[in-house]
Amino acid sequence: MTDELTRLSLFRAMSLEELADVRRFAGFRPASGSMEAKLFVLSAVEAADIGRLLFRLDFRPFAIVEAEMTVWLLEKLQRLITDGYVTVVVDKNVLRSSIGL
């Protein structure tokens, strides 16, 4: 059994522009005109697969970012199947306060 402070890793494939924004902002935030959340997967392999899928569309380099979140909070977040992957939907209100790089 895990306690509520145990942290798990989440992964996200992102453009180099988004990575620069994460570094500048010291966290994740939704882009103007985008959905009010960010999607993460539970493994680096899945994030790399998604990055390669996106690369085939726009030929732009991508990065994989690892973030951490408490199990307690992760269990409360919505999950979606996106392009065949189970993704964790992290709302904009959670992005800055509860997820660590």
Characterise the protein shown here:
There is one protein chain. The protein is an alpha+beta fold. It is 36% helix and 33% strand. The strands form two sheets. Strands 2-5-4 form a three-stranded antiparallel β-sheet. The longest helix is centred in the middle third of the chain and has 15 residues, at 44-58.
Number of alpha- plus pi-helical segments: 4
Structurally, the number of domains stands at: 1
Q: What string, H for helix and E for strand, traces the elements in order?
A: EHEHEHEEH
Strand content: 25-35%
Average pLDDT, rounded to a whole number, is 89
Structural class: alpha+beta
Q: Summarize the amount of helix as a percent range.
A: 25-40%
Sheet with most strands: strand arrangement:
2-5-4
Low-pLDDT windows of residues: none
Q: What would you call the shape?
A: globular
Radius of gyration equals 13 Å
Distance between the termini: 25 Å
Main sheet summary: 3 strands, antiparallel
Number of strands: 5
What are the SSEs and their pairings?
Elements: E1 7-15, H1 16-25, E2 37-40, H2 44-58, E3 62-70, H3 71-74, E4 79-82, E5 85-91, H4 92-98
Antiparallel strand pairs: 1-3, 2-5, 4-5
